[in-house]
Amino acid sequence: MFSNIGVVGAGAMGTAISQTICDNTQKVSLYARREELVDSINTTRFNKDYFPNIRLKDNIIATNDLNDLKDAEIIFLTLPSSTIREVCSQLKYIISQDCVLVNTAKGLEKGSQKRMSEVIMEETGRPACVLSGPNIAVEMVERTFSSASIACENKQYLEKVEKALSTFRFKVSASCDVIGVEYCGVIKNIIAISQGICEGMKINDNARFSVFTKTYNETKDMIEKFGGNRNTVDDYCGFGDIITASTLNVSRNHTLGVLYGQRIVIDEKASGVLFEGKNTIVIMKKLCKKHNIDCATVDFTYDVIINRINPKKAFEIFWDKL
Ligand SMILES: NC(=O)c1ccc[n+]([C@@H]2O[C@H](COP(=O)([O-])OP(=O)(O)OC[C@H]3O[C@@H](n4cnc5c(N)ncnc54)[C@H](O)[C@@H]3O)[C@@H](O)[C@H]2O)c1
């Protein structure tokens, strides 16, 4: 039993992780920036902004003071990838030497194209543990059955995080393939978009799942070229998450693909809805070029979303590469 585990970011994933680990620790310190949300969680036991109908466990204590995490044995970072560097640059002055940082953000750093564990290492000087899987937040908040892959170069850190997460209902697959687990989380966003486009343009199902097969194999090839283990794609972070994000209407990336497949273009500035997946496509296109990788799935999403090529025409180019 741990005494204090921190979670930074009280959004969907932060609440989900808190509800998952709370059986294995005396206290979960859930950091939220807004004092009003902290007060509301601590007094009502509900995160009204995200899950107004699900009561949170009593040992989840919200705080808006990062210093409350100074004795945390583990800290889960449940933040957008764009904020990980900035938050780590603050945390490094607060956390203990033994504290393990766990990244849950599925993205690469814009500009540097670095993985989040690389960003965390640069900022805090310690190897991060990474978590990725078919983790629909609301299901984890409800404490139904879920799973995730975790990876870390440091075996002791990995065992610690495995202990913190594992329960009868939450299954964990631990490995040392940090690169593989992180890239699965990134590439699955591209796959969700490509499958969304196919759905939006109402391509027949035989065709959709034929290209899905190609995509799955391309994911393995890509991860190997990036230095990861191709078999990691068969784990929860790969197969499980790819299927979840590509076939269910719960993913924002999938929705982005469906809209473009229907030739509906969202004005992000006017609507206020940001599609992070667009950045991922641009970053992945650059990375493929850098590593000399020919990936039909990345090209397809780039053609439709960035170059705005007619999806039917782009699909035929994709199909021709099968
Ligand atoms: N939602 C999921 O099912 C899910 C599953 C797996 C992984 N993730 C990953 O978890 C991360 C968070 O996703 P989410 O769905 O919870 O998003 P979200 O928007 O629901 O929550 C993010 C939270 O981070 C807070 N935040 C932003 N910048 C911050 C900062 N500088 N300091 C402190 N808090 C800050 C926001 O206020 C918000 O509450 C993403 O990177 C995503 O890839 C999400």
Automatic annotation (TrEMBL):
Residues where NAD(+) binds: G9, A10, G11, A12, M13, G14, A137, R252
Residues annotated as domain Glycerol-3-phosphate dehydrogenase NAD-dependent C-terminal: 177-315
Binding site for substrate: K106, R252, N253
Signal peptide start-end: none
Gene Ontology molecular-function annotations: glycerol-3-phosphate dehydrogenase [NAD(P)+] activity; NAD binding
Origin: domain of life: Archaea
GO BP term, pick one: glycerol-3-phosphate catabolic process
The UniProt record lists the keyword Cell membrane: no
Keyword NAD on entry: yes
A single cellular component GO annotation: cytosol
SUPFAM superfamilies assigned to the protein according to its UniProt record, in alphabetical order: 6-phosphogluconate dehydrogenase C-terminal domain-like, NAD(P)-binding Rossmann-fold domains
Domain called Glycerol-3-phosphate dehydrogenase NAD-dependent N-terminal: residue spans: 5-156
InterPro entries: 6-PGluconate_DH-like_C_sf, 6PGD_dom2, G3P_DH_NAD-dep, G3P_DH_NAD-dep_C, G3P_DH_NAD-dep_N, NAD(P)-bd_dom_sf
Entry keywords, A to Z: NAD, Oxidoreductase
Catalytic site: K188
Family: Belongs to the NAD-dependent glycerol-3-phosphate dehydrogenase family.
Name by which UniProt lists this protein: Glycerol 3-phosphate dehydrogenase (NAD(P)+)
